[in-house]
Predict the structure of ChrB C-terminal domain-containing protein.
Amino acid sequence: MKWITRERPKIDRIACPWLIKNFVDREAEFIYVPKEQVFSKAKELEAIPYDIPGAEYSHEGDLCTFDYIVKKHHLADPAIDQLARIVRAADTDSFELAPQAAGLWAISAGLSYNVKDDQEQLVIGMKIYDALYSWAKYVQGEKHTWSNRL
């Protein structure tokens, strides 16, 4: 299936493809276009619009598109739930919801600034979300133990 959204992605428009590719549709293809073209191109390309007002897959109240996908596709995984809270906090400027959110925002904004090609940004961003998921699922209890003592 093809999915389409606004160009110049940051939080939700990278997190959602990661979630879709890993838990909803492994063969998914993601397209980025200027915001005013999302719905016309969606129709033309038979793609599902996401993370844009007026799309089924979009923000719902205080929840972001990532949250909607988790709910819509009945994804039950505590690591995904934790990731959803981090993504929501970063995407809605609600950093108090998750301590990792400010860092995710900083990385996403910097990535968007440094990488002008949306598809290249998506490839890099997918690795960032792989790492964040692995942290949430497997190693969040691990502590940094380096010390100044030799």
Observations:
- The chain has a mean pLDDT of 95.
- The longest strand covers residues 2-6.
- The CA atoms of residues 68 and 129 lie 17 Å apart.
- The first helix runs from residue 12 to 23.
